[in-house]
Amino acid sequence: MFKRLREKWKVGPLQLGLILCTFAIGGSATGWAAKKIMNFLAPEQDWIWATLYILLVTAVWPLMVLAISIPFGQFRFFRSYIKKLGEKLGFLR
To answer: From the CB of residue 27, how many other CB atoms can be counted at a distance below 10 Å?
Structure first.
């Protein structure tokens, strides 16, 4: 699996490790931040809470991953990754 990712992203083993750490920390930080924001908003109905949480995580994740990628030295990779993802999802051209 790791070999396939290295070939797909054209990176070495060290950079792959940094990328995976960035994904893990960025995802965890996104969940933590979204939970804090949801506690502040405190919607009463479950379906509103779930809908807002999904939208919030979707909006916060790219920002969080980009912020986390800076200290790991992977900003250029993640900027390109998020741009490609936005194009595939139809958010960017």
So the answer is: 15
In contact, 68 and 24? CB cutoff 8 Å: no
How does residue 41 score in pLDDT terms, banded at 50, 70 and 90? confident
| Domain boundaries, given as residue ranges, for the chain | 2-89
Render 15-80 in DSSP notation, one character per residue: HHHHHHHHHHHHHHHHHHHHHHHHHHH--SSHHHHHHHHHHHHHHHHHHHHHHHHHHHT-HHHHHH
> How far apart are the C-alpha atoms of 17 and 28, rounded to whole Å?
17
Report if pTM > 0.90. Answer: no
With cut-offs at 50, 70 and 90, classify the pLDDT of residue 46.
confident
